[in-house]
Amino acid sequence: MHKLLSKKTVITLSKFRLLAFVLLLNIVANPVFAQSGSQLREKIEQGAERYLLNAIGNDSEQENISINMVAIDDRIQIPVCHTPFNYHAEPASLRQSYISVRVSCGNNDWYLFTNARVSRTRTVVVTAGLISPGSLLTSENLRLAEVDVNLLRHTSYSSTDELLGARMKRRVRNGQPIQANMLCFVCKGDRITISAQGGGMQVKTAGIARQDGVIGDNIQVINASSNKAIIAEVASTQTVVVTL
């Protein structure tokens, strides 16, 4: 035989069910309960990546940046933060390949360090095959490629047109970035034209280079007419300029 419930008991049970339902809605709607530990870790990793892209990108406009976040250990407990997480990395570390980012919460003393591996590449001119010393650079033996910036110790070039007519000073293997220390636009012993400019006038004379130089370098040349040594700026593969 079924036991009859009193009206008071039914009302109490109804209130209990209603309270449980309201509590369940709060749990679903409230991020304090809704976000699991894995979701919080993912949120922090994504926030740290966005922070680094912004911080590094401001100083690396000509570079292609790739950031791989190191996964946060599953054993680390992350409390819910009622304000946006704060991210900070030391400015000096932003040029490194491995960066630590401090993550903190503004409404408590909690913080952790999450790490990222950063790859920086730049589109530069590289060799399209083996090039021997003294070889003339042409569109046939040059190409563009993405290169790790850590391999670029000297001035590099972003256009093959910049290098046409220059000569290699040493043997260079296929795919190696072309850098200023490898080549000369004017090479020692070259016969060149010395252009003396000043006061709206220009005088040209023949000369001989006594040093190697790339465009923009100041090198010593001999004036063939006076046999005197002067310092002139390399302007092209055939011309140096002296400002009077």
UniProtKB/TrEMBL annotation:
- Taking the record's annotation, the residue ranges forming a coiled coil are none
Q: Which GO terms describe its biological process?
A: bacterial-type flagellum assembly
Name this polypeptide is given: Flagella basal body P-ring formation protein FlgA
The organism's superkingdom is given as Bacteria
The answer to keyword Signal applying to this record is yes
Q: Which InterPro entries match?
A: Flagellar_FlgA, SAF, SAF_FlgA
Q: Record's family?
A: Belongs to the FlgA family.
> Gene Ontology terms, cellular component aspect?
periplasmic space
What residues does the SAF domain cover? 122-184
Write out the entry's keywords from A to Z: Bacterial flagellum biogenesis, Cell projection, Cilium, Flagellum, Periplasm, Signal
* Job of this protein: Involved in the assembly process of the P-ring formation. It may associate with FlgF on the rod constituting a structure essential for the P-ring assembly or may act as a modulator protein for the P-ring assembly.
